[in-house]
Amino acid sequence: MLKIWSMKQQQQQEQKEAAANGDGVVKKKVTAAQIRVQKDLTELSLPSTIKTQFPNPDDLLNFLVSIEPDEGMYQGGRFNFTFKINNNFPHEPPKVKCTQKIYHPNIDLEGNVCLNILREDWKPVLNLNAVLVGLQYLFLEPNASDPLNKDAALDLQRNRDGFKRNVRSSMAGGAVAGERFDNVLR
Amino acid sequence: MKVTIDKWIGVSTWHWNHAQDEVCGICRVAFDGTCPTCKYPGDDCPLIIGECKHAFHMHCLLKWLTTESSKGLCPMCRRRFKTATE
């Protein structure tokens, strides 16, 4: 451990000296998170149902994801998410939010997502591919035992067919139990 | 024929004696490379191997273990991480 600190100090010293010498060009440091994200992105192998989009190509840490399930009760919808990765990645998971208001047991009305690998089961050996595939899985198999939207979870648990109907109508922009949802049909 | 050697230059390579995986699962850089904070591979940026046989750059693993969410577990198998003692 001692060695790490002394190396860090040395590095800072070098940086200071470079600044003092007026080398001018302050090198923009590429962070560990950026390097790791870059690697994860080049290794992505996604099904055609998952698409990523980079509004700012220089910023790999913030991007958009859309998922278009081709089976299951959410088939025919397009679900959009924002991914925000902070500089502690991969020690902290990406922050994922759904930008639409949807009827789903594991996604609340604010768009917060309950997926184990984005929360308590995150570990740095997981990559973005695993997160994206896991996210898609929520639409194939909504999980009533670990809900964020308790009403939807109860609905799914009590009456699967009724829940399916509610999902369909919510996806078309309809209301479920007095709550109106966004139209997510493509 | 008599040969006289004026001079010779020795060249050598090295790699960690651990080939289980070729890259560190945390930073995804080769074991023979460095963790993202180091400049020089080798003794300056050593590997650490757990009782579970999973290996990482030591610095990567120590950083993970300082996070609260790690709960002291190996990032590969989620068993308690204990450094292997040979």
Automatic annotation (TrEMBL), chain A:
This is NEDD8-conjugating enzyme UBC12. It comes from Myxozyma melibiosi. Keywords: ATP-binding, Nucleotide-binding, Transferase, Ubl conjugation pathway. Gene3D superfamilies: Ubiquitin Conjugating Enzyme. SMART domains: UBCc. Belongs to the ubiquitin-conjugating enzyme family. Residues 32-176 form the UBC core domain. PROSITE patterns: UBC_1, UBC_2. Coiled coil: none annotated. The active site is at 114 (glycyl thioester intermediate). CDD domains: UBCc_UBE2F_UBE2M. It holds the Pfam family UQ_con. The keyword Nucleotide-binding applies. InterPro entries: Ub_conjugating_enzyme, UBC, UBQ-conjugating_AS, UBQ-conjugating_enzyme/RWD.
From TrEMBL, chain B:
Pfam families: zf-ANAPC11. PROSITE patterns: ZF_RING_2 (PS50089). InterPro entries: RING-box_E3_Ubiquitin_Ligase, RING-H2_APC11, Znf_RING, Znf_RING/FYVE/PHD. Residues 35-78 form the RING-type domain. Keywords: Cell cycle, Cell division, Metal-binding, Mitosis, Ubl conjugation pathway, Zinc, Zinc-finger. The keyword Cell division applies. The keyword Zinc-finger applies. It comes from the Eukaryota. This is Anaphase-promoting complex subunit 11. It comes from Myxozyma melibiosi. The lineage of its organism: Eukaryota, Fungi, Dikarya, Ascomycota, Saccharomycotina.
